[in-house]
Design a protein that fits this description.
By secondary structure, the protein is an alpha/beta fold. The protein is built from six helices and 18 strands. Bound molecules: flavin-adenine dinucleotide (FAD). The site of flavin-adenine dinucleotide has 43 residues, from helix 1, strand 8 and helix 6. Flavin-adenine dinucleotide binds next to helix 1, strand 8 and helix 6.
C-alpha cells in the first residue's frame, strides 16, 4: 500500500462512528485511512438484529449492517487496514503532525478521528458470552421491545440499570432488578421512580450465579448473600447494566479523559484538547451509546476535521 508522507485523516475504529467518519472524509477528498482493530465492524457485529436504526423497516442483522457500512466506505476509496493501533503520539501544536503506530510501522497525519468505542462490562459467568443477542443484552432501548408483555431481569444498581428498568417496566409484564449491594448507586430521582413501580421486583444483596439455557436464555439462578438463599427465575431477557469500559488505554496521558476514561470533547462538537484530534461514537459518549448517535458523531468528526484542515 503506497501512502503519502503525511496524511490528512486517520480513523481509528471500524464501528458505525468510524465508518460514518470515513464516508464523509473520503467524499471530502481527505483520503482517509481506517484501522479496523480487533473487532472489525465493532459492537454491532455481536447482535443478531438491529431494529431501531433509521431506514431499515424490517431491521437488519449486525454483521450485514456493518458489511454494508464497510462497502460504502470502500466505494469512496477509504483505505482500510486490518490492524490495531498500538500507540499514538499526538501533537500539541496547531497544524502539528500526529504519529500513529501499528505493527512496526508509523503513519503521520494532520488529522486523527478516534472511534474506538467501548465494551460493556460482563458478569463473568458461564454461558454469558454465548447467549449475547440470544436473550442477553446490554441495551434495553435496543432489545426491550423483543420482550413486550414478558418477564425480564436487569442487573445493576446505577443510573443505567435504573433507567433500563424504568424503560422496560413500561413494555414488559414484570422486571426483576438484581442489585449486588443493599443500596442503589443511582440518582435519588431515579430511585424514587423505580420504588413506585408495581411491576418491578427489586432483589438487593443478590448476584446471578447461573445462566440457564443452551440456545437461548431460559432463566437465571440468583444467590442472596445476606439470607444465603437461592432462587431461580424464568426469564428470556436479561439486561446487563453494570457499566461500559471505553477503549482509551492508548490515549491516556495524551488526551483529556473523564473519571470513567471517556474522551472529553468540546460541547456540541467532536473536538478534543489536541488540535486536529477528534473523537466520535461511544468512546466519547457515556450517555446515549447507540449506533445512530455514533454514526452521527462520526459525521460530525469528519466535518470538524475538514474545517480544521482548511482554517
Ligand atoms: C450486543 C449489542 C447489541 C446492540 N444493539 C444495538 C442496537 O440494536 N441498536 C443500537 O443503536 N445500538 C446497539 N448497540 C450499541 C451499539 O453497538 C454501539 O452504540 C455502537 O456500536 C458504537 O459504535 P462506535 O463506532 O462508537 O464503536 P464500536 O462499535 O464499539 O466499535 C469500536 C471499533 O474500534 C476498534 N478499535 C478499538 N480499539 C482499537 C485500536 N487500538 N486500534 C484500531 N481499532 C480499534 C474496534 O475494533 C471496533 O471496530 C448494541 C451493543 C451491543 C454490545
Amino acid at each position: 500500500m503506497a501512502l503519502k508522507k503525511i496524511q490528512d485523516c486517520v480513523i481509528i475504529g471500524s464501528g458505525p462512528a468510524g465508518y460514518s467518519a470515513a464516508i464523509y472524509a473520503s467524499r471530502a477528498d481527505l483520503n482517509p485511512i481506517l484501522f479496523e482493530g480487533t473487532q472489525p465492524g465493532g459492537q454491532l457485529t455481536t447482535t443478531t438484529s438491529i431494529d431501531n436504526y433509521l431506514g431499515f423497516p424490517v431491521g437488519i442483522d449486525g454483521i450485514n449492517f456493518m458489511q454494508n457500512c464497510k462497502k460504502q466506505a470502500e466505494r469512496y476509496n477509504t483505505k482500510i487496514i486490518n490492524q490495531s493501533v498500538i500507540n499514538v503520539c499526538l501533537s500539541n501544536k496547531n497544524r502539528g503532525i500526529h504519529h500513529i503506530f501499528f505493527e512496526k510501522k508509523c503513519i503521520n497525519s494532520r488529522g486523527v478521528i478516534i472511534a474506538t468505542g467501548s465494551n460493556p462490562k460482563l458478569l463473568g459467568i458461564q454461558k454469558e458470552k454465548k447467549l449475547i443477542g440470544l436473550g442477553i443484552s446490554f441495551c434495553a432501548t435496543c432489545d426491550g421491545f423483543f420482550h413486550k408483555d414478558k418477564d425480564v431481569a436487569v442487573v445493576g444498581g446505577g443510573d443505567t440499570a435504573l433507567s433500563d428498568t424504568n424503560y422496560l417496566s413500561k413494555i414488559c409484564k414484570k422486571v426483576y432488578l438484581i442489585v449486588r449491594k443493599n443500596y442503589f448507586k443511582a440518582s435519588k430521582i431515579l430511585q424514587s421512580y423505580i420504588l413506585k413501580k408495581k411491576n418491578v421486583k427489586i432483589l438487593f444483596c443478590s448476584q446471578i450465579t447461573k445462566i440457564i439455557g443452551n440456545n437461548f436464555l431460559e432463566g437465571i439462578k440468583i444467590f442472596n448473600h445476606e439470607k444465603k438463599t437461592n432462587i431461580t427465575i424464568l426469564v428470556n431477557g436479561l439486561f446487563i447494566a453494570i457499566g461500559h469500559i471505553p477503549n482509551t488505554e492508548i490515549f491516556k496521558n495524551q488526551l483529556d479523559l473523564d473519571n470513567k476514561g471517556y474522551i472529553i470533547v468540546k460541547k456540541g462538537s467532536t473536538i478534543t484538547n489536541k488540535p486536529g484530534v477528534f473523537a466520535a461514537g461511544d468512546v466519547q459518549d457515556p450517555n446515549y451509546r447507540q449506533a445512530i448517535t455514533s454514526a452521527g458523531t462520526g459525521c460530525m468528526a469528519a466535518l470538524d476535521l475538514e474545517k480544521y484542515l482548511i482554517s
